[in-house]
Amino acid sequence: MLFQQIARNKRKTVGIMTVFAVILALAGAGLGYLFGNRPWLGLGIALVLSVIYMLLVLPNPANLVMSLNHAQEISEQDNPTLWHVVEDMAMVGRVPMPRVFIIADQSPNAFATGRDPDHAAIAVTQGLLDLMNREELEGVLGHEISHIRNYDILVSTVAAVLVGVISYLSGLASHFIWWADDDNDSDSDSTFVVVFKVVAIIFVLILGPICASLAQMALSRNREYLADASAVELTRNPQGLISALEKISGTGPMKKADASSAGLYIEDPLRKKNGLSHLFDSHPPTADRIKRLEKM
């Protein structure tokens, strides 16, 4: 059951990242079509922007994310219990000891970030340390170590970069749409060309960013299920993580969590309620996560 779930979630992740690539290609091609009837040029610009953005972000994403979330790095002497639990989970997960941070917030939560296992970091809130016993803390940190071991931290960073590039292309199109090449609006245009141009405008301005956000949320939800399963593989004790999720789900939102980092946390730090639809949820329902853990 455990290994089948891990394999299934990995396949879903590949599918979602493929959707990301398709959305980026369509947004770039649509932009190129609008500005000069050159979809391939737009596609090339989108790819170049993605590469440049990644080169700027990927060298050290951990410092940036920790700074955005007001996290303070600690040493072993500052909190030996937390340090040793992280050390134990890293040893079991066979990853290097990550840097450890604490966020001065009473809402219990935690996340992992970084480029790869050699450049990873884990942050926990003071509220998590105050509320959890050791068994629950092991469940939470096993979950975060799993994100590092599964390279979720890299996938999340790449997804954030792709969403940023697609949003930038949309913003660019919205500012310069009136200067778009209107050669295709001549009397000789076919109905098909006019319809195609309208569809391109709608996609680049509206649907592209929405689809990218939906894909990012789906990816985040999928990663949480996988990390839950992997945490049980490390701790051999699903009850610790189940109990931790039950405690966390009954608490209030964090006060200073960075919204762009919300998908990294073990539970949504903003506790957003999205009404009838779960499409924009950054995390799967806690009840569903617990139900899956209970079957292991």
From TrEMBL:
GO BP annotations, alphabetical order: proteolysis
Keyword annotations of the record: Cell membrane, Hydrolase, Membrane, Metal-binding, Metalloprotease, Protease, Transmembrane, Transmembrane helix, Zinc
Location (main, coarse): membrane
Cofactor binding note of this UniProt entry: Binds 1 zinc ion per subunit.
UniProt topology in membrane: Multi-pass membrane protein
Similarity field: Belongs to the peptidase M48B family.
Record's protein name: Protease HtpX homolog
Gene: htpX
